[in-house]
C-alpha cells in the first residue's frame, strides 16, 4: 500500500465535511432540521452497508468495545451537523478543530502517550486561539462564556468527540474495518435519533418534516458522500499517528472557510483569523513532533 493513501483518504474526508454545511443548510431551509437529516441519511447508509455486506453486523457484535466508538462518532456527528447549520461556518470549524489539543489529553489517558513540554505549549496555543475567537474585542476574560452561542458549544463538544473518535480508531485498529465502519454509522444514526427525540419533546427542534423532494434528493446524495467520507476517515486515522491525523484534517478549515466566503458571503474578522492561526499553529507543531518521533 502506498504511504500517501491514508493522507489522501483524510483529505477526501476533510473536503466532504468542509463543504457539508452547504447541503445541511439547504435541507434546513427546506424544513428538515439537521438532527433529523442526520437520522435519515445514516439510516440510508446503514441499510446500504448491510445490504452489501450483511456479515458485518455479526462481525461487529463480536466487539462490544465498539459501543464506545459508536457513541463518540455519533455525538461528534450530531454536534458538528447542528453547529454548521445554525452557526457561523468559520467560527464553528475553528472551535471544532480544537481537536488536536483534545487529542493530546486523550492520547495521554487512553494510549499512554505522555505529553511533552512542547505538547503542553501546543495546548496553550490552541486554547489561546479559542479565547481570541470567542471573546469580543471589548470584553474581559470573565466574559469569555457570556457570548457563547449554541453553535459554539456544539462545536467545542463535537471537536472533543472527534478527537476521542480518532484515538479510539487507533486503539481498535486490530478490529476489522467493516465492523468499525458499521459502529460509526450506527452511532451517528442512534445518537442523532436520541438527540432529536429529546430535543423535539422539549420543544427545542421541530419534528420530522414531511417528505419533500427539495430535501430528499440532497439527503440521498449527501448520504453517499458521508459514507465515503467516514470510510476514508477510519481508513486514514487507523494508519497514522493521532498528531498527523489532526494536522491533515485541518485542511477542512481551508475548504470550509473558502466555501463559506464564496457561497454564504461570510466575513473573516482579524480576531478570527489570528485565533485560527494559533489553533492551526498548535496542530502544525503536533505534526512536526510526530514526524520527529517517527524518525527517532
TrEMBL record:
<feature type="domain" description="EamA">
    <location>
        <begin position="152"/>
        <end position="286"/>
    </location>
</feature>
<keyword id="KW-0472">Membrane</keyword>
<dbReference type="InterPro" id="IPR000620">
    <property type="entry name" value="EamA_dom"/>
</dbReference>
<feature type="transmembrane region" description="Helical">
    <location>
        <begin position="270"/>
        <end position="289"/>
    </location>
</feature>
<feature type="transmembrane region" description="Helical">
    <location>
        <begin position="89"/>
        <end position="108"/>
    </location>
</feature>
<dbReference type="InterPro" id="IPR037185">
    <property type="entry name" value="EmrE-like"/>
</dbReference>
<keyword id="KW-0812">Transmembrane</keyword>
<feature type="transmembrane region" description="Helical">
    <location>
        <begin position="181"/>
        <end position="203"/>
    </location>
</feature>
<feature type="transmembrane region" description="Helical">
    <location>
        <begin position="7"/>
        <end position="24"/>
    </location>
</feature>
<feature type="transmembrane region" description="Helical">
    <location>
        <begin position="64"/>
        <end position="83"/>
    </location>
</feature>
<dbReference type="GO" id="GO:0016020">
    <property type="term" value="C:membrane"/>
</dbReference>
<protein>
    <submittedName>
        <fullName>DMT family transporter</fullName>
    </submittedName>
</protein>
<feature type="transmembrane region" description="Helical">
    <location>
        <begin position="143"/>
        <end position="169"/>
    </location>
</feature>
<feature type="transmembrane region" description="Helical">
    <location>
        <begin position="245"/>
        <end position="264"/>
    </location>
</feature>
<feature type="transmembrane region" description="Helical">
    <location>
        <begin position="30"/>
        <end position="52"/>
    </location>
</feature>
<feature type="domain" description="EamA">
    <location>
        <begin position="7"/>
        <end position="134"/>
    </location>
</feature>
<keyword id="KW-1133">Transmembrane helix</keyword>
<feature type="transmembrane region" description="Helical">
    <location>
        <begin position="215"/>
        <end position="233"/>
    </location>
</feature>
<dbReference type="Pfam" id="PF00892">
    <property type="entry name" value="EamA"/>
</dbReference>
<feature type="transmembrane region" description="Helical">
    <location>
        <begin position="120"/>
        <end position="137"/>
    </location>
</feature>
